[in-house]
Amino acid sequence: MRHITANFSLYQSQLKAKLQSAVSKVHISSDLWTSPHRHGVLAVCARWVDEDYQPRRALLSLPEIRHNHSGKHQSRIIFSTLNIYDIANQLGCHTGDNAASNDTCLQHLSTRLRQDRNQINWDPKRHRIRCILHVINLSLQAFLFASSREALQAALDTGSDITGDELYKPFNFILNDASGGDTTNRPDHMEAQAEHPGGVACKRASIQKVNLPPTSDNKSDNTRRGGWIMVPALRKLHRIGLWLRNSPIHSDAWDERIKLRLGIDNDTRWNSWHRMIDNLIREKAASDNILTSSDWDYLEKTHAFLQPFMSTTLWAQGMTATLSQNLMIMDILLRHYGQKKELYEAEETHDPLMLHSIDMGWFVLDKYCIIWGVPYLRNCPSP
Hints:
Number of domains: 2
Strand order of the largest sheet: 3-2-1-4-5-6
Number of strands: 6
Main location: nucleus
InterPro entries: RNaseH-like_sf (IPR012337), ZnF_BED_domain_contain (IPR052035)
Keywords: Metal-binding, Nucleus, Zinc, Zinc-finger
Helix content: 40-55%
Order of helices and strands: HEEEHEHEHHHHHHHHHHHE
Organism: Fusarium oxysporum (strain Fo5176)
Radius of gyration: 24 Å
GO cellular component, one term: nucleus
Distance between the termini: 26 Å
Oligomer: single chain
């Protein structure tokens, strides 16, 4: 244990020297994370340009956060980390997600820096960078789940004078809870994608004795998901994923027949819907009897539409991501929305359901650009 502590102190002192010799500001990112053993930790990372003009990054601290995850508590930990490395005077921007606690954290951090002996003037709004991947994911949620433009406008209007999760929460509430799983009020064009009576269960027999899950409405499931419950193809796909995950017998039978794990959608895992659809389409020949032709048509169109979002998400993360690159990504995605809208407006390829989804996603992406200003600081945290 003594040797571990000595090594830690040695490496920490070396990192401190590198940070203090930086020729740029030291930009930080922070993110709360829960370990598989249910321990809450706060990762604090740094990016800077060293004396050889090479970009560098490092993990500064990874303390456990117990009992209190408030922004004020996070600010104390970040401030302590800055003092340990003696880089408060070099602090540049902070990158984080849209959680309201990040706004609170930076406000308290600014106060602490101002009250410090060096009286550092650090503007929490000017130095706030929002994760572009969260914006992309929000736009995709609107594409997949939103039922009305008016609902999105109401959510955005609610947060017109605020930032972070204070805007994000009402938006998500409308997407996930407003419909309450009630499919009776869905738009008329969604009826074209109406579920076949009996759903997946009526075509289950041909997958070699694999009993697929029924698609009868489940109140708790509907209440949790709200938006996608209006799209039968997504509802079926989600329930198949749950059915496979909940039993090793089911997953073994699926693996033997389909030979490719389907996966499961996840609200906090970017592109999880694309991966699920992609896995199913890759083995369509083996699983063609699971869904109706209308379901397959919708999933294939959705898969093609989501592909650029998958690519840009991968491009926008990691060590090589830059602000200028992210501006290009926003332009690419807005252009993608426009091109697909023209495609599905054409008479020979007209699709009201896709047009509705495109309108929802495009609306959100465009509104975020307006709310935050163009250009605005955008990047992805990499704790």
